[in-house]
Amino acid sequence: MSTHSKCQSCLLPTAVPGANLNSDSVCQFCDSEKLYSLSVKAESRRVDYKADLERTIEACRNSGAQYDCLVNLSGGKDSCLLLYKLKKEHGLNVLAYTTDMNIPEIAWQNIRRTVELLDVPHVSFRPPTEFYKKMFRFLLSHQESRGAVRTVCYICAPLFEGYSLQYAVNNDIPVVFAGYAPGQPEPDRMEYEFSRDLLCNQDWTPPELVESGLFDEHELSLFWNPHSYPEGTEFPRYIAPFHAWDYSQEEAIDLVVKLGLIKNKKSASPIHSNCPINWLLMYSDLKNLGFNPYAPEFSKLIREGKASKNYWKIAGPIVDFMIRKKVFLGRNVAKSLQWLGMKEQELAITRESQGAEYGDQITGASEEEQKKSSLSSV
Question: pTM for this one?
Answer without folding.
Answer: 0.92
